[in-house]
Amino acid sequence: MHHTHYHRPASVADAVKLLDQHGDDRLIAGGQSMLPAMRLGLASIEGFIDLGGVAELKGIRVEGNGVRIGAMTTHAEVAASKDVQSRAPAIACLAAGIGDRQVRNRGTLGGSLANSDPAACYPAAVLGTGATIHTNTRSIAADDFLKGLFETALKTGEIITAVTFPQVEKAAYMKFKQPASRFSLVGVFVAKTAQGARVAVTGAGAHAFRVKALEDRLNAKWAPESCDGVTVPSANLNSDLHGSAEYRAHLIPVLTRRAVAAAG
């Protein structure tokens, strides 16, 4: 039997110290990805640094025209927040559709982003809105955060503390979900911002990514029909028993069209 040890820091500073002292330990937020991976034998972890007791990582507040959400805020709390519903309603809707009740009440915003599952919803949300990911040492633009399969811009000893979602003119999220896991086979987050249209896709590649061809069409005319006729290359897209790369490529403009219609 594999033995592990467990730490529960009370502050971000304490968590950083523990990371420095126990280099092989893993931060745990909601545990909705890490614990299943351990059960399946996909991860062998020496110890946990549980962020559940760090009060400064929790909570939601209005910040300027947007909303700042603490990294340890659960999906259920995001979905139920009046501030999120009023300032970033598409984010509230996205959070309400993640997993099932258990996942929504245990899983966290920061944990989802740090894990960067290729089919997770939140990576599309931060990329689609042009959000800012805050850590204990710096702030990272969403466009610079996602690097590869389960890979982000986070450095050793760096902890996500919060995410700021800017208020956008219009936004919506549509996903074609795998019915068992409710992860996105393909999910598309669209936003009409002051800087232009943003189209972020999850589930189709190694990590969430933007589609410039669709953004260009929507910048010319923000309308569902602007997505018609756009072809997304299938090269480098995911292909598995749930859907081929070509099928995922086909779904991207279809879901983008639906998301634009939903955004209004």
Protein model, in words:
The chain is α+β, with helices and mostly antiparallel strands and 264 residues long. 32% of the residues lie in helices and 24% in strands. The strands form four sheets. It has a five-stranded antiparallel sheet with strand order 4-5-10-6-7. Strand 6 and strand 7 form a beta hairpin. The chain starts with a strand and ends with a helix. The mean pLDDT is 93.
Major sheet strand order: 4-5-10-6-7
Helix content: 25-40%
| Rg, alpha carbons | 18 Å
Beta percentage is 15-25%
List keywords for this structure.
264 residues, alpha+beta, 10 helices
How is this fold's topology laid out?
Layout: E1 5-7, H1 12-21, E2 26-28, H2 34-39, E3 47-50, E4 60-63, E5 66-70, H3 75-80, H4 82-87, H5 89-96, H6 101-106, H7 109-115, H8 122-129, E6 132-135, E7 139-141, E8 146-148, E9 151-152, E10 160-165, E11 170-177, E12 184-193, E13 196-202, E14 209-210, H9 212-220, H10 245-263
Parallel strand pairs: 1-3, 2-3
Antiparallel strand pairs: 4-5, 5-10, 6-7, 6-10, 8-9, 11-12, 12-13, 13-14
Short description:
The chain is of the alpha+beta class and 264 residues long. It has helices spanning 12-21, 34-39, 75-80, 82-87, 89-96, 101-106, 109-115, 122-129, 212-220, 245-263, and strands at residues 5-7, 26-28, 47-50, 60-63, 66-70, 132-135, 139-141, 146-148, 151-152, 160-165, 170-177, 184-193, 196-202, 209-210.
